[in-house]
Protein 1
Amino acid sequence: MLKAAHKTGLVFFPAFDWAIDPTHPEREERLLYTQDQVTEEGIFDIEGILELKPDLINNQDIQRVHFCLPDEESITTESHLISAGGAVAIAQAVMEKRVKRGFALVRPPGHHAMRISHGGRGFCHINMEAIMVEYIRRHYDVKRVAIIDTDCHHGDGTNDIYWHDPDTLFISIHQDGRTLYPGSGFTGELGGPNALGSNLNIPLPPGTATQGYLYVLENTILPAIEAFKPDIIVNSAGQDNHYTDPLTNMKFCAQGYADLTRLLKPDIAVLEGGYAIEGALPYVNLGIIMALAGLDYSRVVEPNYNPEKLQQAPHVTEKIEKTVEIINAHWNNRHHLRESAGSPGDIQERHREIYYDTDNILERQQEKIRICRECGGTFQIESTAMPGSRVLAVHIPQYACHSCREKGYEMYDAAPKKKYDKVILQDKPQDRYVIKS
Amino acid sequence: MIIGLDVGGTHTDAVLLSKQGLERQIKVPTDTSNLFETVLTGFNHLLEDIPIGKIKRVVISTTLTTNAIVQKELNTVGTIVSSGPGIDPEWYRTDENYHAVEGSIDHRGREREPLNHKQILAIAKSMKEKDITTLGVIGKFSVRNPAHELEIRDLLKDQFDTIFLGHHVSGNLNFPRRIATVHLNAAVYEMHRDFFHAVKNSLEQKGLQIPIQILKADGGTMNLESSMSFPGQTILSGPAASVMGSIAYAPGDMDAMVLDIGGTTTDIAILVDKVPLLEPLGIRRGKYKSLIRSLKTHSRGIGGDSHVRVDGNTLKIGPERLGPAMAFGGPAPTPTDALVFLKKMNSGDQQLAQKGMENIAQALGNTPEAAARAIFKQTCTMILDQARDLVHRINSKPVYTVHEFLAGYAIEPQKILLLGGPASYFAQEIETLSGISTEVVPASAVANAIGAALARTTCEITLLADTEQKKAMAPEEDFTAPISHKFTEEDAVETTHELLLKKALKSGADTEDMAVEIIEYQQFNIVRNFSPRGKIFKVKMQVKPGLIKAYEAVCHHCTINPDIEKGI
Ligand SMILES: [Zn+2]
Ligand SMILES: [Zn+2]
């Protein structure tokens, strides 16, 4: 009888009644054919595969990650709360050892949602993986987390949220930002001064095939994970690298996704993008589920799969090998990079503009971070959104040192209330989120 | 007058009901080696001195199929499956006559790979050489497009006596269960046919001209003719019969739990506003999983004859049954011994029961009285825990829309109905422990036969309409029709309703007993490259399980006959 080698939990929440708008790629129909395939295969009848029910997350769960503006209710729908709740349900089952691994097949996605969220970017409003990771850091004994984002778009939201966190290894592989939304994620983006090297961004040229993905996995991602020694591995499992995806230009396939999953061995996978809803998603999701469960997936092949058409061009291979060399050099040099990033106690500034394509908002940020060798470093962000609000947001990291905790309150107290619509303090060590009144 | 007959594993119950109430009731031992004789004996007793013309309805529930599975007396049949991409179909091998062939249909019902006739004919030839006359044909996604199954049938129809097709058994997706269900239908078909033809003939000889109805696992009936296509649906009709027998006493607008406490097991079911809950996909019992429509009944190893012992310092009850209670000559203490010892039950040997309680008391270091009370209380607690566990599992079933998630109806039983031999002894304690109003179903010992007699004909239909592909189909009924892009929700519901009524009448339903409901409705826009291409509609509708109108009131005249209430 068919039996999963690894007990695997699945949350399936296709949100069959929720869409950004009726013809948007992020619409009701997106997981319909995946559900049909998974149901017809009898996946939930397999011994060792458990279907779990998502729970709603609450505002406090969101506030551990985001500054939502003007507030949580305005930029989320129930669907977001259930989707994040699906990721949390999987994480709980994994942490409580009810399952060995899990996969949250949920929508809407979240990996483009940044720490400050004024609305929708790249179909995302709040970040499912980050909310889940911060939930388990709060409720279970987990500190070091590796998040591997294999969506074809740069996971710029997750990248932003963990930019200053040396305890989170965030790696994104994606189609080169010069050829695809959101246009970021280049090799030099390595994290903030206190966390340099804990963000690795690996752009891949259009036309990257299975061979290229597995090359990056084996030569950069897996060695980095091994050196980082995470307590858990999270996979942002976007499926838009598929050769039939309408939004991207890659040559990845269901077998490739399953191989990647088998080698990466994520504890928790969370569905992100993927818009070839008929030709790719049913097979890719089936492949990922079976690989997670340790089942033989060799017959999970797209009906129109033609390996000859999915060959990787030599110049693509060459480009990937060069990128891997660059990334590995940064990674091996990470301790030195942090040492030379500034003197402890100094404040470093960064200015950015962020465009919210889904909701058509432009945001300007001015960020100030305390250089620290002992923790991720407290920072404040002054954010102005057009249209939208002007806020000052202060973040004290989860494992903040004494000086950074004090610095956080200093920043918060010093902020003139009159100048902003809101002054907010996210005090992670105390699990507090306070708005100046 | 109507007749209900339930052939159980150990005994057979039969009732004769008139509009005035229970006219006759009998209980005879079941002869598992000759169920036909058992059924005939039942009828002979019931019909003695009754003018045959007065009998308007006969419903039979049997363990024929269950017995055949347990005793491994299934017929040898051939199985041909085509799967396409996905899980290796070799995992679902039924026996050595199982063959996976080329050919593939995808999730939208489009052909992805054609069948290979040469391959199929070669397989048929090998089966003929083994004298196989019954064949099952199952394709992955055949409920989205049955073309391949029909093509194989047409190719082989002259070479086999009977061919069962996957898309007929259910509109639900689940390829492995479809294989298991078709295989069961095919493997019990000859036995089922021979048995019921024999029953029909002998009833006809008695002058009974009305069609026979057969009880299904979903608590509804089907006529003999329909049963020939789906004989597997008769499996586990016994527990369904008991649940149907309790429905008349369930409150409306409220959730109720039905606990059928037997010697070995307690069967648990849930009623919502007098309608029993169904399994979402079909029967599952341990490793066996099917698409056979079924009431959601959970059988747990705790009952009057459960083995009681002390392990370390803890009292253990069940799940095994070593034999009858010591008070009735059994080998080990049981909850029934506790009942006898505590004088809650007046039959049985007091001294033997006391001996059993002394055994337990010694191991626990207390008095036989304390031991008996502990056993009694723990038995009731365990039964309630199992019932609560079922409610919890039903309530934590995942849903797939924001609306359902937020609406999230949760079962909250406000009434407990007890059935089975020891039920009356447990009622008060169960009510005290649960805080839920508890009632013993009248005539509880033959409630199963009454349930069978009064069950209405049920059926289900699934319609799938795809305006991009311009067709509507209901695979179970081999229905396909062209539709236009203007096809609407109302059209979908109306088409499904028509098909359902037709199917129900064909299965023997009475027009006044069509309690119809939509059990699933989904609608999707098909969008490609940001422009709408059409719509997909999915409608599932059923005639829900319940009691026939004409006789529903009868139950309130059914009283307990002390003659058959004795013994467990
Ligand atoms: Zn993407
Ligand atoms: Zn610090």
Protein 2
Amino acid sequence: MSRVSALAHLEAMEAMEAMPLTRFRHRHLSDRPLVVIPLTMAGEAGTPLAVLVGESRRSSTLLVVGQPRNRDQRFAFAAEFGRIVMGYIDSCRQDRLEIPSRGEERRSRYTSAPQILVPNNGGIKALSDLGRMCRFRRTDGPYPVPAVVPELGKWLTFLVETAEQAGTSMLLPMTGLLGEHWATGQSALEDQNLASLMAWISPPDGLTVQEAMADAENPELCPPAGPATSPQFDNTYLAPAMRRFDTARATGNEQALAEAQADLRGLLSEQLNPTWRLMWTALALLRGVDEAPRAAARFERDCDSFTDYSDYQDSGDARPQPKRDGAIRAARRLSRLERALADFEADMAFDDPYVRADQRSLGEAFAGTVVAAEPDRVDITASNRRVPRPRVTVRTLDPVRLVDDTKLISPTMPPGHKAEIVSIVRDGDASLIMVEVTGGMGRARVPRPGTVPVVEQHIDYLPDPGWRPTPVFPEADQIPWTHAGDPEDSETMDPVAAGQAATEEWGDDN
Amino acid sequence: MIATPDQRLDALRGPAPRMHHNARTLAALENNPRCMLRAVLDASGSDKAAIAAHTGYQAPFGQSSFALARGNVFETMVKANGCAELLRVLRETLQLTLPEVGYQDLNDVGGDGRAESRHARTTHLLTAAARGHGSDTLYDHPMLRLVVGGHPVFLEPDLVAFRVDDRFHVVEIKSFPIVDDQAAPAQVRAATTHACAYIIALRAMLAASGIGPESVSDTIVLIAPKDFTNRPTGAFVDARKQVATLTRQLERIQRIGDLVELLPEGLTFDLAADDTGRPQRPAQELAEALDQVPATYYPECLNHCEMAFYCRSRARADGSLDVLGSAVREQLGGVDTVTMALGLARGTLTPNDDQVEMAVALRHAARLRVELHNSPGAAGAAS
Ligand code: SF4
């Protein structure tokens, strides 16, 4: 948060409508995302109650667990949901593109990657719990399950892990996507409610933002977007319906069972449908925002990691992700997440003047007008070569806090432009920053036209995030670390423990 | 005649039965200790949920019968057969050496379920145990007392205190799971807050008999379902920091007696319920009474206090920056309202001496926003 973003929230509060926080949408959006709205049962940790899932607004599939406390019903649900998710993932594994290989690295990758959209962070947590519950299941031995159940578990776990990494787009919460682009006049806490957030961005026809906000917090008008259902709904409707279902099942009355099932489905689809419509409306709004230029490259990295994981699954000895990271895996993960965040922030700042404005108000970047230039300046290198080293002075009103010798890049100059701060001199409210252009001028002795800023030109500079070496971690064994545990994650290696994990209970069994 | 604080508090509540502190009011203590409205409503035992509902701002809370049932089933199971499962976890999972186990049910005293009697019995037994008399190890549902703002409140924890290494330990039985040795931090924190209140109350009780604070451990034993099963597992939670924080906050809470002195004579939150319990007091009048007491709203109130929707509407009407939450608030130190912040940003208001620097920064930020709005391809407002 910077003062510029804070102001956006104030403007929204004053105008009573959402205000843009960014120029672009920084996440790639798939043409064919899979929208998933999971519901879980109150009090039963991560126990699925229902899910509404589908690839288009008009075709959704509702899956319901009649009695979530019952093991068989839960696994039947997991298998059905697994078939839908795996069908979707398979549809992303149709085309592979050869890529020019540098060295021994990958030779081809899938041209697309899955994109699962859930309403909020709670939705991700629900999928994470489901992944954890399913990935250790066995297809043989006690309590066997269909093969698709552990497969679903592993894929959900993979997707949830990617979601922790900044800039990825394979599993995203809708509230997060909207909140990256729009500022509302309410708190971050309230922004986690999809209906409240949408009230600011696009209130339903005929409603003011105030009215839409009030409705959004009324569970009778706007059922929660999950994964928790509203307590009133649980007590008034769901509990009695579930009791009828249990009774019908116990007495073996086929017709009563069918009716009770239909009742439950009716109730749950009423709870889920408003959020379903909201998800697709939100998606349409986001599609109306231009995608940031660098989102495409990030999407390719998504395709890479999707291909990697997919190939690992095909390799035959695919194991479930360990329950907990060992030290090496944890250190790698942390390092990967930190890099991803730094890269994502640098990308966004380069692409987006709004994000740069944030950095400018914090003094971490600047923009201004060139007031003086020495375009013909040259330096003599250590090897006695004359190289062009033009200097220009930029006058800016930004509260610059960068220091001399900071390496700079510029999104408003041709690609490859590099510069360094020579000096910063205060001039009343303004600062005069002298920079030396060090790169992006071509190989000739005179800079290529247009590669050196000229007087009166407006220019943006930000620190060069630079190239950072990939940290080296001890190699534990041959298994690619992205897919398997370190030996110290004994859980995955020890057959006894693995066996226990497979037969572990899941709630009570009644 | 000058009314005593207790009389004033009773008058604030009116004839309705007194509400007791519960998990949520304790959490609010930790989260918003300075809110005078909440302090006064809680101390007077007023029914915040009913008050909020009557003003038209129904509290955003409710509990699912599923969660309730699950919580009860789990607690019952842990405590069944003389706490057999609990003992298994303490011995096997937490590797505690327990001597012979004696179990003491403090739920009622020979059919007397009154808080005072139960508290007296709890005090008697636990003090004796601390002195080395008695052979009990587990105390089911002891009744404790905590002094909040100079006013005693009974805490009826559904927990068990037990004696290990000559110390009492507070045991919290919760039905959220510990999955792969990890539990949701927010839930652990909330559970710890409750346990801290119990630790403080327990220490105060023993202190009255000259027994030092070291007799109560500030490590909590958390008992919760293991992974996605119904089997309990346990974990130690170090509550030292939270005990210190809560102690400090309890000390800092203004004495309720002093607070009520500041309130206008004759102020009451009485709902004037008729025979059927339906409130008859005009809602407008009730709102005016509430508005006499300063509140310090911030968005987290939505998770902790029944009055949250009411206070939020008040904060919104005032254009208070508190409605935006701390992330935005931190950028605008010393400025309280939207009107003032935007006035400074647009140069239509003159900053006072403390706001000069902030005003410069805001004007700069506002210039950047204008630049962005006017730039080609500017992101349009949503529609
Ligand atoms: S909701 Fe209102 S009464 Fe409750 S703590 Fe917040 S400000 Fe105080």
